[in-house]
Amino acid sequence: MDDCSTDNSLSIIKKMADDFDEVRFVAFAENRGQSAAFCAGFDAVQSDIVVTMDADLQNDPADIPDMLAAFGDGCEMVIGWRAKRKDTFIKRISSKIANAIRDGIMDDGVHDTGCSLKVMRSDLLRKLPRFKNMHRYFPILMKMQGVLIREVKVNHRERATGVSKYGTLDRAMAGIYDLIGVKWLINRHIEFTVKEKK
């Protein structure tokens, strides 16, 4: 999935798609943000399982086999846990503050909601409510569907390319706005059990 990246990732993906029939891609006409990119990818995927990760080389693909091994046996989502983060000091502090606020308002029970390395069931992902920054709330949104989540400690590397857009004041304000909205969604969530139907 390419969200109009300014690096060379799209041309690399196109070359891979030419060389391997299994590789397909979706490229946006304009930048629409990470959540929109995820949703477009979820709609296009043809497998039962989705593995997500960023293209900035901070995630390590070598962690995927361990995450797939943790998937199944009732578990429908596996989240990467960057136990030893290689981010800047400011980004680590911003993340700690944001996580503390989020945990105080709604505890999703995971250590690292921000890690893009995740394994999830594609049919459940397509049922999630869609909104800007929804990717920050995948765990709680999946839990609303009764999903069992496991965490796997993963490697984390220093950013090799691109510039982080997180940690600025405008994003912090947007995060608070989103948090209020997701809390409302959780409180208004409908659950029911069908006794019988014809």
Automatic annotation (TrEMBL):
MF annotations from Gene Ontology: transferase activity
Keywords: Cell membrane, Glycosyltransferase, Lipopolysaccharide biosynthesis, Membrane, Transferase, Transmembrane, Transmembrane helix
Cited Pfam families: Glycos_transf_2
Residues of the Glycosyltransferase 2-like domain: 1-127
CDD domains according to UniProt: DPM1_like_bac
Signal peptide span: none
UniProt cross-references to InterPro entries, sorted A to Z: Glyco_trans_2-like (IPR001173), Glycosyltransferase_2 (IPR050256), Nucleotide-diphossugar_trans (IPR029044)
Name of this protein: Glycosyl transferase
Lineage per the UniProt record: Bacteria, Pseudomonadati, Thermodesulfobacteriota, Desulfovibrionia, Desulfovibrionales
